[in-house]
Amino acid sequence: MRFNRDVRYVIPFVMQFWMFASPVAYPSTLVPEKWRWLYGLNPMAGVIDGSAGRITGRGHAPSLLLLVSSAAVALVVLGGLFFFNRMETAVADRV
User: Fold this and answer.
1) pLDDT band at 74 (very low <50, low <70, confident <90, very high)
2) pLDDT at residue number 49
3) Phi, psi at residue 40, to the nearest 5°?
4) For 59, which DSSP code?
């Protein structure tokens, strides 16, 4: 299966991109206010930013960022459930 061989090259790239797209090494306040909603689509952005604020004792819970992150997670979960329910019989037949 060619897909399995290619995934091992893609995963490090995706992980590195995700690291820069999450506020791990920098605060989310560096992101301009007009782009913060787009930044919040990263499900980990609100979690990491909120945790960093709690650990350092500075700042407050990023309510808008957490709301957008939660909505993105809910959308992905609902999409995954819909896709699974639709493909369940086809996958069982192939295996």
Assistant:
1) very high
2) 78
3) -70, -15
4) S
